[in-house]
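Curious: why these numbers?
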Amino acid sequence: MCPALQNTLIWVFSDPSPMPIFAAVKTFRTLLMDSRILLPFLLSLFAGLATLIGFGITFIAKRTNRKLLSYALGLSAGVMIYVAFVEIFAEARSILIADMGPRHGLLMTVIFFFGGMALIALIDRFVPSFGNPHEPHSVEEMAKKGHKKPKLMKMGVMTAVAITIHNFPEGIATFMAAIDNSTLGITIATAVAIHNIPEGIAVSIPIFYATGSRKKAFCFTLVSGLAEPLGALLTYLILMPFLSPVVMGCVFAVVAGIMVYISVDELLPSAHEYGEHHIAIYGLISGMAIMAISLILFA
């Protein structure tokens, strides 16, 4: 374990002092003792730490199974798109219509749905192009020679920063869905986790080549993944004093927009880049079918 992370964990779980910052730690620990919050947090943590699977693949696998990765990313997109429209958007609409009436409730649902898309699009817009986490990477890159270390280090750091920023709204989507419906939260967490595997590869390859240190590659990959549960908890702490049916409806609409944008802008293009077009589409349809069947079974 890297020293910075070890010190942080010791600090978080030590006895809190009267200092304000330790009071915040105490609040964090109290939140996690709430069973209603614990499962959504653990699901967000699971999804975020899937970046470490990408790190492991980088150093263990001899070659990238591009067809499997393409299918998995397509499946993840299918799950997220189906859930966003059939479950989360519909839930947001029903909550807001019940409080505001049919016309205004539907209008607010649509506004916040596209607001979620606008939020993640703005985040995307301000991420430098050379740090774009959507660029496909493979373990075969580990065998290449002649990389320029300063350039690689800069690219690796920027990729880690970009993925950290991207993981905030993904953590929100997983967390808020799990608060309302644990089965739905597990499904979304799994889909996001699949999406995070190639992101772990994207961070670890340039960092390792720039520094020659697996520990540093691991630490950068870990920090980028931890942004997911951190974003989820911070969002909950901000919204907690204002939680009401209307706020939950608006949040669900935003989450639906975020999930659709991530699927269309990140998952499907990456699935296409990693494999054949039809494999990605087969994965997309499979994801939708699996989600449809699971919703029927658990209805």
Q: What stands out?
A: The two ends are 43 Å apart (CA to CA).
